[in-house]
Design goal:
The protein has 7 helices and 5 strands, in the order H-E-H-E-E-H-E-H-E-H-H-H. The chain is an alpha/beta fold and 234 residues long. It folds into 2 domains: 137 residues, Response regulator (Rossmann fold), CATH 3.40.50.2300; 60 residues, Orthogonal Bundle (Arc Repressor Mutant, subunit A).
Length: 234
């Protein structure tokens, strides 16, 4: 049987183009896509950072260093570049990015375990990774080159959280040490009162407590005054 009429053309439906997910992996130095730059410039301040957050960047200002500084500035923090590396790491910054070197532990001014800033080591990849050196620096984070925007944001956030947690622990330890010293002073003062005034242990403690309330000082201060007076008179 012969077909009649014209044949209708087949309509091709074009599938909608799905937007490409951006996970930050293509934000390498020199390859940032132009369409993402405006969005990056409008990136809000990283959550948890105070209004006046200062960062020192102690790295060579090559392409990698420029990228690091630019990404930190996009976090809306105050950035200061310092190079060449000073003989002593500065103390007046909230966070410090510093290139890893063999003499870095000697350039850190604070006492181990009592840092003044969140320290982030920068491994430029020019030398083999020295794990013992990293351990001796007692840093709060480590950034490897080449870095991405996501890596920089993450290491800054984690280093600050680590630093704040460490500071809270030091505060608790200092408070426990102070309580222990006070207990020792009270015990010594009670022993002196028991021996010199023929008081019972409860009476000696009540005497120290009463003196502290009347003079509006801590019982540890009263106990220390009792001990110092006895040592002076004897």
């Amino acid at each position: 049987m012969q077909e009649t009429g014209t044949r209708r053309p087949v309509r091709e439906e074009q599938m909608p183009q799905m937007p490409r997910a951006d996970y930050g992996h293509d934000r390498w130095i020199g390859t940032q896509r132009p369409e993402n730059r405006a969005a990056a410039e409008e990136r809000p301040r990283q959550a948890g950072l105070p209004a006046e957050f200062t960062v020192a960047v102690i790295v060579e200002r090559d392409d990698h260093g420029e990228f690091l500084i630019r990404e930190l500035q996009r976090q809306r923090v105050t950035v200061r570049h310092i190079w060449p590396k000073p003989s002593q790491i500065p103390l007046q910054y909230d966070a410090i990015f510093c290139v890893l070197s063999d003499d870095l532990p000697q350039r850190i001014p604070w006492v181990p375990g009592e840092p003044s800033s969140a320290l982030i080591l920068v491994d430029d990849g020019k030398a083999p990774l020295n794990l013992k050196l990293i351990h001796n620096c007692a840093a709060h984070g480590l950034l490897h080159y080449p870095a991405t925007a996501r890596m920089i944001q993450s290491v800054l956030m984690m280093a600050r959280e680590h630093f704040q947690y460490e500071r809270r622990l030091r505060g608790r330890i200092d408070k426990l040490d102070e309580n222990l010293r006070t207990m020792r002073l009270v015990e010594r003062a009670k022993a002196l009162l028991i021996r010199l005034k023929n008081l019972s242990e409860e009476e000696a403690y009540n005497f120290l407590r009463k003196q502290a309330m009347e003079k509006r000082v801590t019982i540890g201060a009263v106990a220390a005054a009792v001990i110092d007076s006895h040592e002076l008179l004897s």
